[in-house]
Amino acid sequence: MASELNQPVFVAGHRGMVGSAIVRRLRALGYANILTAGRDELNLLDQRAVGAFFDENQIAQVYLAAAKVGGIHANNTYPADFIYENLMIEANIIEAAHQSGVQRLLFLGSSCIYPKHAEQPMKEEALLTGTLEPTNEPYAIAKIAGIKLCESYNRQHGRDYRSVMPTNLYGPHDNFHPDNSHVIPALLLRFHEAVQRGDDEVVIWGSGTPMREFLHVDDMAAASIHVMQLDEVTYQAHTQPMLSHINVGTGTDCTIRELAETVARVTGFQGNLTFDSSKPDGTPRKLMDVSRLKALGWEASIGLEEGLNDAFQWFLDHQEHFRGQA
């Protein structure tokens, strides 16, 4: 283990929410040679540049957390960008890792890889068993391709490239843009602004009955490193050559109403919550089956309210950055 702590570990996408959490976790565990490269230093869409970076740095392990991400509006507006950039990023990094002799790599995907009407909770076996959610299909297809890239390099070249699929993530370095953020940062921002204005009501889209699962990004980082550190025999005993990815989540969910009530407590909002049932609810439930991950010895440890408090404090500490983004 001591020698592993000194090996070069490349975290692609270190400025994003997941990548930054992985870097924090690796540092806390004593990893002394963590490699990162921002967009101004390395264009991950440039195959030659990525290959040269790997050749120059003699990388031992890779966490592939880099991706083009966004909400429903962005996915609907720029589908070509989402499929092209994500395919190029993962293909360039995985091929460069192989060509430079990197034996172990972890690819981070998304729960959107599963069919729109997958049985709940969603098992790994649900992959490619039905049609995808149309709004983010290009992004999902790119993530599925990443899984299959890893599986293919393992089969053809004997590599040990692994994939983890997280549920809905939140935490430090989340996107708090008023128009493009996901549900947790959007609610934290809306309730905080309501408190600042002295509002006595917050209106929330939908009936509040849909159920969602949320995982703090620090738990995601811990799970990623746990999976990466598993010995190959143990990992393969719980996966299959053509079904090698592992779900990462809490295994529990809550209603949007329960989420909103918790956000109200965290932000100090004491007014009324009104649910606008004329607005769409989306999928009734979206929950990950995490039994495979539990069998491998890992479970989430950060409760929702604890995690929301942490995310909200991070927002308060950095809110100047988000002013004027609307």
UniProtKB/TrEMBL annotation:
Catalytic activity as recorded in UniProt: GDP-beta-L-fucose + NADP(+) = GDP-4-dehydro-alpha-D-rhamnose + NADPH + H(+)
Matches recorded under Gene3D superfamilies: NAD(P)-binding Rossmann-like Domain, UDP-galactose 4-epimerase, domain 1
Span of the signal peptide: none
Keywords: Isomerase, Multifunctional enzyme, NADP, Oxidoreductase
Record-annotated NAD-dependent epimerase/dehydratase domain positions: 9-230
Top-rank taxon: Bacteria
Record flagged with keyword Ribosomal protein: no
InterPro entries linked to this entry: Epimerase_deHydtase (IPR001509), GDP_fucose/colitose_synth (IPR028614), NAD(P)-bd_dom_sf (IPR036291)
Pfam families to which the protein is assigned, alphabetical: Epimerase
Pathway(s) it belongs to: Nucleotide-sugar biosynthesis; GDP-L-fucose biosynthesis via de novo pathway; GDP-L-fucose from GDP-alpha-D-mannose: step 2/2
Site features described as Important for catalytic activity, chain residue numbers: 110, 112
Residues reported to bind substrate: 190, 205, 212, 281
Enzyme Commission number: 1.1.1.271
Binding positions for NADP(+) per the UniProt entry: 13-19, 108-111, 143, 166-169, 182
SUPFAM superfamilies registered for this protein in UniProt: NAD(P)-binding Rossmann-fold domains
Residues annotated as catalytic: 139 (proton donor/acceptor)
Function: Catalyzes the two-step NADP-dependent conversion of GDP-4-dehydro-6-deoxy-D-mannose to GDP-fucose, involving an epimerase and a reductase reaction.
Family stated for the protein in its record: Belongs to the NAD(P)-dependent epimerase/dehydratase family. Fucose synthase subfamily.
Protein name: GDP-L-fucose synthase
Organism: Pseudomonas benzenivorans
Organism classification: Bacteria, Pseudomonadati, Pseudomonadota, Gammaproteobacteria, Pseudomonadales
GN (gene name): fcl
